Amino acid sequence: MHRIFQTFIDHLAESVDVGMLRDGMANAAAALDLNCFAYLSLPSQPNLKPQHITTYPSNWTDHYLRNHYERLDPVIAEVLRSPEPFSWGLKTRSTQLSKAQQQLFEEAAGFGLCCGFTIPIHDSRGPIAAVTFAADEPRYAAFRRCVDEHERVLQLMALYFHAHARRKLTPGRVVDGVTLSPREFQCLEWAAQGKTSWETARILEISRHTVATHLENAKTKLGVRTIVQAVARLTASKSIVQ
C-alpha cells in the first residue's frame, strides 16, 4: 500500500494537466482493484457548471446527464449533507431511498457501477467536492475488502487529489486581490518553496525562460520588484485565507 500511495503522490506532483491527474488516480485505483473513480467539484454559484474528472463509462455519464439524475442522486444529496465518507449501491440499500433513486442505482449497476465509496470534501477555501471509488458486481468482495482495510488512505488520496485538481480546474489564482494565471501562480508557489527557475522548469516540464517570464508577469501584476517580495505577498495572502 505504501508503494501505491507514494507512486500516486509522485504522479500528482508531476501532473501538469487534467489528463495526467486522471491517469494518476486511475492507476492507483486499479492497483487497489477499484476499477473506476469520479471526482466532482460542485459549483459555488448556480450559473456555473460542476467540474469533474472521471473514468466512469462515458455511456453512463451521458445517460446520467441526459436524464438530469443530479437532481435526485442520493449520493450528491449525502455529499452536501455531511462530510463523512459513506458507501452506496444495490448491496447497501436504504429504506430512505425513493423508487426513482433505487431505479438510478439499478441503472448504474447495469453500466458496471454496482457499488461505491464516496469521500465528501467540505473545503473552507472552495466549493464542496467529492471523490468516489466504484466497482462492478464481480469485484464487489474485493472492493469491500479494500475499503475496509484502506479507508483512511483512500480519504488521504481524495484530499490530495482535490488539492491538485483545484489548481488545474481553477482558471486563475488570487493573491492579495490580484488574479494570476495558473502558470504564474504555480511558478510563484515553487519559488516560495525555494525552487530555482531551473528546478521549477524541470518540475513543470517547461523552459527556464518560460518560468522566468511567468515570474516577471507575476511581479508586475503584484506591483513588486523582486521574487522575494512576490513570495511574501503570496505567503501573506495564504495566511489571511487560512
Give short descriptive properties of this protein.
Beta-Lactamase; single chain; 242 residues; Arc Repressor Mutant, subunit A; elongated; alpha+beta; 2 domains; five-stranded antiparallel sheet; two-stranded antiparallel sheet; 14% strand
Notes on the protein architecture:
The protein is of the alpha+beta class. It folds into two domains: 2-169, Beta-Lactamase; 173-241, Arc Repressor Mutant, subunit A, CATH 1.10.10.10. It is built from ten helices and seven strands. The strands form two sheets. The chain has a five-stranded antiparallel sheet, with helices on both faces. The protein has a two-stranded antiparallel ribbon with strand order 6-7. A hairpin with a 2-residue loop joins strand 6 (173-175) and strand 7 (178-180). The radius of gyration is 20 Å and the shape is elongated.
Topology:
Elements: H1 2-14, H2 18-31, E1 36-41, E2 51-54, H3 58-66, H4 74-81, E3 86-89, H5 99-110, E4 115-121, E5 129-135, H6 140-169, E6 173-175, E7 178-180, H7 182-192, H8 197-204, H9 208-222, H10 227-241
Antiparallel strand pairs: 1-2, 1-5, 3-4, 4-5, 6-7
Could you tell me the CATH topology label of the largest domain.
Beta-Lactamase
- Helices and strands, in order, run as HHEEHHEHEEHEEHHHH
The residue ranges in which pLDDT falls below 50 over 5 or more consecutive positions are: none
Number of helices: 10
